[in-house]
Design a protein that fits this description.
The chain is α+β, with helices and mostly antiparallel strands. It is built from seven helices and ten strands. The chain has three domains: about 10-95, no CATH class; about 135-175, Roll (SH3 type barrels); about 185-265, Alpha-Beta Plaits (2-Layer Sandwich). The N and C termini lie far apart (about 115 Å).
Length: about 290
């Protein structure tokens, strides 16, 4: 009874489902392909994480280089592994020519974006205009790069929201990379005071506000510029450098503005804003028929 059951199962597994070229694809062949591909994809993912988190970490390589190397190695292993699995399953590899032709037709009918994103991902991995850990702005998205793939990148905003951006945008659009070279960035705080104010006192107080803020670097040192005298007052700029709050620029700007306000208030200096006079006409605008 058991042997008959096994014979029936064997016949079912060897039943031809479709013929590809000279190869009959049976249920056992299909099952072998599915299990083999799933297992190999999982193994390559584990190998990628081992390379990134263990092997290259010991070599002292930075996170961006580790991620790029891990992705490239994984996709190379996937390509080789897929070919090996197809050979082991007995499928004629000349079918790949047919698949390549089908893919070419598909690209012409709507896969352009997928291919563009894939190629753009390879360009990013090799040229590295952005890398994991960078603070970037692309369009109206501002955040930290937490993942780079061959199809898309993941950006984590200050609101803890993950935004998936296709790689094509990083190749075709302007990108502001706040940490491409180093983490030092200059913050500019505009200040306008009354014309009757002492400009040297204003300069002193602005520098004190910057130097007393622990997030402001001492080198390069903060600076103050007096740009022009306007109808509303004297226009200054406080220029301060920081490398710790480039991901929260609004916070440092706010802290400096509070410090400036406190110092100006203690020294009776008046902050001014542009004044506008509005005249309201009480006469009718249209033609008069009187």
């Amino acid at each position: 009874m058991f042997s008959e059951l096994m014979d029936q199962i064997s016949k079912i597994m060897q039943t031809s489902l479709v013929k590809i070229g000279e190869t009959n694809v049976t249920l056992s062949t299909l099952l072998f392909l599915v299990i083999g591909i799933v297992v190999f994809v999982y193994l390559t993912k584990m190998i990628q994480r081992w390379i990134v988190d263990k092997l290259l970490t010991r070599a002292g390589m930075e996170i961006g280089n580790r991620e790029a190397t891990g992705i490239i190695v994984r996709y190379m292993l996937l390509i080789v592994g897929l070919i090996v699995i197809l050979q082991m399953s007995g499928i004629d590899l000349t079918i790949l020519n047919v698949l390549a032709g089908t893919l070419g037709i598909g690209v012409g009918f709507g896969l352009q974006n997928i291919v563009n994103n894939f190629v753009s991902g390879l360009i990013i991995l090799f040229e590295r205009p952005i890398k994991v850990g960078d603070r970037i702005e692309v369009g109206n998205v501002h955040g930290k790069v937490i993942h780079l793939g061959v199809r898309s990148a993941t950006i984590l905003t200050n609101d803890n929201v993950s935004i998936i951006i296709p790689n094509q945008k990083f190749v075709t659009e302007n990108i502001i990379n706040w940490s491409h070279t180093d983490d030092k960035r200059r913050f500019i705080i505009p200040v306008t005071v009354a014309l009757s104010s002492d400009p040297y006192l204003v300069e002193q107080l602005l520098l004190e506000a910057a130097n007393e803020e622990p997030e402001v670097l001492k080198d390069p040192a903060p600076g103050v510029r007096l740009f022009w005298f306007g109808e509303n007052g004297m226009h200054f700029e406080l220029r301060a450098w920081s490398n710790s709050l480039i991901h929260r620029r609004g916070l440092l700007t706010s802290k400096l503005n509070f410090a400036i306000y406190d110092k100006f208030k203690a020294n009776n200096l008046e902050l001014v804003t542009p004044q506008r006079e509005v005249f309201v006409r009480s006469e009718p605008v249209g033609p008069s028929f009187e």
